[in-house]
Amino acid sequence: MKIYSHDNLSLHRPLPYYSYGKMFEPLEIPERMTELLKAPAALGIDVTTAIDIGMAPILAVHDFGYVDFLKNGYHEWMALEEDLGAQVQTGIFVPYDNPAIGIMAKAAKYQADDSAPISEHSWTSIYWSAQTALGAAEALLNHSDDKDTHIQLCFSRPPGHHARKSAAGGFCYLNNAAIIAEHLRQKYAKIAIIDTDMHHGQGIQEIFYERSDVLYTSVHGSPVNFYPAVTGHEFEQGKGAGEGYNVNYPMPHGTDEAGFFTYVDKALDTVALFDADVIVHVLGFDVYESDPEALCSVSTEGFKTLAQKMVALGKPIIILVEGGYYLPKLNDNLQAFLSGLIIDE
């Protein structure tokens, strides 16, 4: 097993923001990385520092104008004579019929909601989050005979599964799962993405909705009055060539651990039927029973079970650690997951 990270993942620090009539403290904060990195250290597992694979795999998935906004938007925002605040953030979302003239219009075009602000060092973390995931993909592309590449885990901060082709939202900026799935297609015919984060990954769904070479299946809380609210229903099954290759398993709010695994097993059956060459697992610790975003109740021991089920598929797997906002248990929960991977190697 290999684990990838980079020091730059901790640089992105969103500031408190105003939404729904009140101020919110950000949940996706650098301290998450501090807690997560304790887990491999406690288990004596080395962490590989990601290397720079470059921009090409990112631009193979995301629009150029959007990536340029993520990279340069902060500096353009701060260059304004008017003080708009210390981070790029807008409550306006006008993605269509928007010529993107001026930084305020660009923000309105590319920020789908107010939970994905851009501050001084955001781009550095965003870029290296993608590079961390790409490191695992490159290892599999170039060293597939190495047993260590059969199971790989990447710290993906900020996370990515909500990021659309040209829009940030839900703490997400670059869609790391989609980027590495597309990158892996250089060598592998079929990629399966299984997403067990508490929230539906509408960005992944959008990017591959009309394709049959990348299966997307997601276990998540029902989107009825829950983020992302407008996607994640069972009837969303793909379009055109992709019809049937997008499979959602929305859980009723309040689902217990047994119910969670009932849905996970259905998703795993879907993945097994697809018979992918490589599996990408979007792992969210926000399904943990005490997480502020949880509408289900997975225990710490449950993450060990989840890991064992993933490995039992018998395919090369890249795990992206994305959601999870209850800091006191992130270390324990990741240790439990890693122990499931280690036992079954």
Automatic annotation (TrEMBL):
Domain of life from the UniProt record: Bacteria
Keyword Ubl conjugation on entry: no
Keywords from the UniProt entry: Hydrolase, Metal-binding, Zinc
Domain Histone deacetylase residue range list: 46-340
Stored Gene3D superfamilies: Histone deacetylase domain
Names of required cofactors: Zn(2+)
Record-stated family: Belongs to the histone deacetylase family.
Protein name in the entry: Histone deacetylase family protein
